[in-house]
Structure formats: structure tokens, C-alpha cells
């Protein structure tokens, strides 16, 4: 929200939207709609993504699935373009939950995996916890209990590393109930009961209303499987009171449905019908046909067992009427997914084009136009990084400055075009050496180049420097203005040492420049190498012919 920091009204809306989040969904919607309208007028994509996401989250709490899909479909592209990765992954998570509740498990898994990819890429552990556990819940629903357990364990391992998360106890309970269910579904109630104990020990007085309902439903089913009817009935009594309060129905549907099945099987008809009626009302309000059909199928089973023929026929007719609605709903869900994919693909193309343009601009800003080598801007950054690495690791660093012998005379005699060609030939030789040895090279300006050797011994640096010297001599570029040689040559000055904490990279450059001056004064076309601070180094190469130029 940094782009809007100067707008006091907008900041008030943001604070109010976040302050009411999870407390008053209607107020959250009100402030988010104000934010969205402002963002739409000002074309602020960051705020558009932010406000659309929190509208979707509020609709989730209000069990309004169509509006949730509408809001999140809008939010995704803006969140992606503005780089709000946590909200983007949370959007995919909510879309996955809703798709699963609509009976589209493959689409739900696709959304979950999209959420996980962003969590892993941007190291968002908090969101990764709940997404992994939600995938576990999906596998439990599909009867794949070993897969479910695997994802619950992944979520739990991440959770153990992030105990400071504000939702820690909610996530911990999700893990205990999820793992417990994998045992309960496989008819190992004693193993499942262990997680009741863990939940009561670790999460006591730390849970919200939704978590309390989920835990009570799990306990009732577990106690029932173990034959502890008194403990089970105590849980049923607690749930009876909880069902009278408003709730985030979608977050607790699986728990309530499994609980409702238990009530049916043990013959608790009054409680069964009461819970079923509440769930049907919430499912109708949410507009989720798949859930309505699931509940209706459970009611049909009840009417059949009770022999209530008329009610049975009526419910069966309603069940088949919902089939057409279900088809339309699935079509809408898939269409929403396709629209989201299309929008994100367009965003990805725009980002790729922008990144390519930035890459070109970055390359241009760091590249010498004449030679294609790195220029002084890139040299400054690399040299400082190399110096810090060498100082930290206590390894040798060598900085070389070289220039072309009597280049001004060459340029004046052969012309500027020939001078440019000469510089390009020298650059090609340096690039060949860079490819072979991994050293860094840059054009410093004019006919000067700088090379940086990291972690090389004195012998290796000298070997490479002399190799470069010979490769340039072997070009056989005529240089009639150099009385000591027939061809173009270079002079090289090198500073080799281990950097000190009180030193700077420019100290190395200054020493290397002094070594270069020594070569030019005494024996051009050779290499002088010395340690930091030395005024003269040792000269290597071969004895040149008589040189009348200084």
C-alpha cells in the first residue's frame, strides 16, 4: 500500500477493512468496496488486487460462493501483476476449497497446487501450512488416506518451524483432526483418540467457535466408534448449542457432514434432522448445489429407513432436479477457471515482455557499445563484490590494468576506424581468456581494460596474463608507429594480494596502475606484478627491442 501512503482516507479504509476482517464481514465488504472504487478510478493495481481479495474472503465468511468466485477472479490478475504473492496464494486456496465443496476435486487440486507453487517460490510458510492440510482434507474426502496423511505431515512440519504464527493453534487443531480422521476412517479409533488428547492438551482455551465445533464433531465420532456413549452424548449436547449460532459453514462442512452421518447411523433422529436442516439452509444460502445434493442424499437414506414413502419420493425428485443445476454450476466453475487462466496468461506475457525489456536495458547500461564487454558501471559492482568475497574468505585477489602500446600514434596513423577495430580485436582476445579461465574483464575506457582474478595463485595469474600477451602479439596487427615491435602489443600491470579489512578495491586498482606505469616506463609489451602498496613489481615477458618512446 506504499503508493497510497499520502491519502489519509484510503489508509483509514485499509485499516478498517483489516480491523474488521474475520470479525464483521459486512463491514469488511463496505470498506473494501470503497477501496475498490477508488482504485478503479485511480488505476491502482495494487489496491485493486488487495480490495478484491478481501471482498472475496468476506464473501467466503458470508457463504456467498458466486460473489466469492467473482471477486477472486478479478483479484488474481491484479495480485499477480502487483506482486502480492501471499494474497495470490490465499486466493487460490479459497478457490480450491470452494471448488472441492462444489464437487470438482480435480479443479480444486489444480488450485491448491497453484497456491503451493507460489508458497514454495516466495517462501510463504504460513499459507503453505494450511494449503498442505487442505490437500490432506481433500484426499480424506476421496478416501485416499495415506496421501492425506502425507500432506498433513508436510503441513505439520512447516508449522513446527513457525510457532509464532497468529493462527498457530487453529492450524495445529486442523492437523490433529485431519490425522485423527485418517485413522478413524480406517477404523482405528484408539489411534484417532490420541489426537483428541493432544488437541485438548495443546489447544485448550485457544480455539475460536469454528474450531470448537470441528473438535466436538471429531470427538463425538471418535467416542462413538470406541463405544463411549456417555462421552459421545456429552459432545452431542455441546454441538446442539453451537449450531444455534452463525458460522463459516464452508470451513466446517466436512466435520458437520461426518457428524450428521453418525447421528443417522446411531438413530439420533431429532439431532440428525436439526443439524441437517441447519446445514441445508446454509448450503442453499451459499448456492452450492453439490452440498445440497449430498445433504439431500443423506435425507433420502433417512426417509427410506423410516419408511416415510411420500417424503422419500419428494426428496428423490428434488435430488434429480438438482442434477441440472449441478451441471450449470460446474459449467460456471470451469468457465471461471478458464477466464482466470486466460487473464493470468496475458499477465504473464506482459511481465515477460517487461522483463525482457528490462534485461535489454540492464545489459545496455552495463555493456560497452564498441566491444560488447562489460563497462565501468558493471566493473564497479563486480570489483566491490570480488573484494568483499576475497576479504571474507581470506583468498588472493588480483586486479590487472592493461592498455595498448602507443595507441594514440596507432589511431592517428591508421585512422579512427582502424583504431576501433584494433580495440575490438583486443576485446575478443580478452573474452577468449575469460571463457577459458572464468576471470572477469571489462573495458575501462579508451584503450584500457581491467581484469579481475579471484582465488588464483601468483603463478596462475602470471600464466594467464602472459597467455593474453602472447595471443595479442599473435594477432599480427601491424603497428609501424611502435619502434620496439612490428605488431600491436599491450602493457599489463597487476596487483596481487589478500584484501585487508581496512582496505578498498580502489587500493588494488591504484597499485595495478602503478605497475602498468612501471612497464610503460621500462619495458613495454610486458607484465609487472606486485603486492598491494608496492611501487614497483617484478617484470615478466621478454626483452623488447630498442624503445625511444617513454
Automatic annotation (TrEMBL):
Stored Gene3D superfamilies: 3.30.70.270, Tetratricopeptide repeat domain
PROSITE patterns in the record: GGDEF (PS50887)
UniProt domain GGDEF: residue ranges: 395-532
Highest taxon above the source species: Bacteria
Protein transport in keyword set: no
Record CDD domains: GGDEF
Swiss-Prot/TrEMBL keywords: Coiled coil
Residue ranges of coiled coil: 337-364
NCBIfam families: GGDEF (TIGR00254)
Protein's name in the database: GGDEF domain-containing protein
Organism: Roseburia yibonii
Amino acid at each position: 500500500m506504499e503508493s497510497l501512503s499520502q491519502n489519509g482516507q484510503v489508509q483509514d479504509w485499509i485499516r478498517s477493512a483489516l480491523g474488521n476482517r474475520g470479525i464483521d464481514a459486512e463491514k469488511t465488504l463496505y470498506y473494501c468496496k470503497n477501496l475498490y472504487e477508488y482504485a478503479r478510478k485511480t488505476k491502482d493495481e495494487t489496491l485493486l488486487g488487495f480490495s478484491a481479495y478481501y471482498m472475496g474472503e468476506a464473501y467466503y465468511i458470508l457463504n456467498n460462493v458466486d460473489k466469492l468466485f467473482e471477486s477472486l477472479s478479478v483479484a488474481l490478475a491484479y495480485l499477480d501483476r502487483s506482486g502480492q504473492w501471499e494474497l495470490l496464494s490465499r486466493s487460490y486456496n479459497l478457490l480450491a476449497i470452494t471448488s472441492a465443496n462444489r464437487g470438482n476435486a480435480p479443479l480444486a487440486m489444480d488450485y491448491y497446487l497453484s497456491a503451493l507453487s507460489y508458497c514454495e517460490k516466495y517462501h510463504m510458510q504460513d499459507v503453505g501450512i494450511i494449503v498442505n492440510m487442505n490437500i490432506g482434507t481433500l484426499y480424506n474426502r476421496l478416501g485416499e488416506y495415506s496421501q492425506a496423511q502425507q500432506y498433513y505431515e508436510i503441513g505439520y512440519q512447516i508449522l513446527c518451524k513457525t510457532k509464532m504464527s497468529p493462527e498457530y493453534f487453529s492450524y495445529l487443531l486442523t492437523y490433529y483432526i485431519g490425522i485423527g480422521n485418517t485413522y478413524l476412517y480406517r477404523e482405528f479409533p484408539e489411534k484417532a483418540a490420541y489426537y483428541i488428547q493432544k488437541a485438548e492438551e495443546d489447544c485448550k482455551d485457544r480455539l475460536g467457535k469454528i474450531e470448537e465445533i470441528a473438535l466436538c464433531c471429531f470427538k463425538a465420532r471418535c467416542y462413538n466408534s470406541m463405544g463411549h456413549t456417555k462421552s459421545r452424548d456429552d459432545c452431542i449436547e455441546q454441538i446442539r448449542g453451537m449450531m444455534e449460532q452463525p458460522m463459516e459453514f464452508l470451513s466446517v462442512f466436512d466435520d458437520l457432514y461426518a457428524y450428521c452421518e453418525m447421528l443417522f447411523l446411531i438413530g439420533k433422529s431429532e439431532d440428525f434432522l436439526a443439524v441437517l436442516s441447519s446445514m441445508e439452509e446454509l448450503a442453499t444460502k451459499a448456492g452450492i448445489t453439490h452440498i445440497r445434493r449430498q445433504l439431500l442424499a443423506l435425507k433420502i437414506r433417512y426417509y427410506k429407513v423410516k419408511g416415510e414413502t411420500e417424503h422419500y419420493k419428494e426428496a428423490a425428485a428434488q435430488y434429480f432436479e438438482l442434477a441440472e443445476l449441478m451441471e450449470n454450476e460446474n459449467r460456471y466453475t470451469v468457465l471461471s477457471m478458464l477466464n482466470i487462466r486466460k487473464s493470468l496468461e496475458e499477465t504473464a506475457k506482459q511481465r515477460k515482455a517487461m522483463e525482457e525489456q528490462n534485461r535489454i536495458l540492464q545489459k545496455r547500461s552495463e555493456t560497452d557499445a564498441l566491444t560488447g564487454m562489460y563497462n565501468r558501471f558493471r566493473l564497479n559492482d563486480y570489483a566491490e563484490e570480488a573484494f568483499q568475497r576475497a576479504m571474507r574468505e581470506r583468498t588472493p585477489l588480483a586486479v590487472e590494468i592493461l592498455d595498448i602500446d602507443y595507441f594514440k600514434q596507432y589511431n592517428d596513423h591508421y585512422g579512427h576506424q582502424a583504431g576501433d577495430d584494433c580495440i575490438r580485436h583486443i576485446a575478443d582476445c580478452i573474452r577468449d581468456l575469460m571463457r577459458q579461465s572464468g576471470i572477469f574483464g571489462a573495458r575501462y575506457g579508451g584503450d584500457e581494460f581491467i581484469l579481475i582474478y579471484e582465488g588464483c595463485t601468483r603463478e596462475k595469474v602470471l600464466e594467464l596474463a602472459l597467455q593474453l600477451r602472447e595471443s595479442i602479439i599473435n594477432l599480427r596487427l601491424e603497428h609501424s608507429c611502435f619502434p620496439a615491435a612490428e605488431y600491436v602489443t599491450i602493457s599489463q600491470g597487476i596487483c596481487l594480494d589478500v584484501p585487508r579489512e581496512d582496505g578498498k578495491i580502489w587500493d588494488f586498482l591504484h597499485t595495478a596502475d602503478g605497475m602498468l606505469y612501471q612497464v610503460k616506463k621500462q619495458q613495454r609489451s610486458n607484465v609487472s606484478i606486485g603486492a598491494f602498496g608496492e611501487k614497483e613489481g617484478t617484470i615478466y615477458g621478454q626483452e623488447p627491442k630498442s624503445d625511444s618512446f617513454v
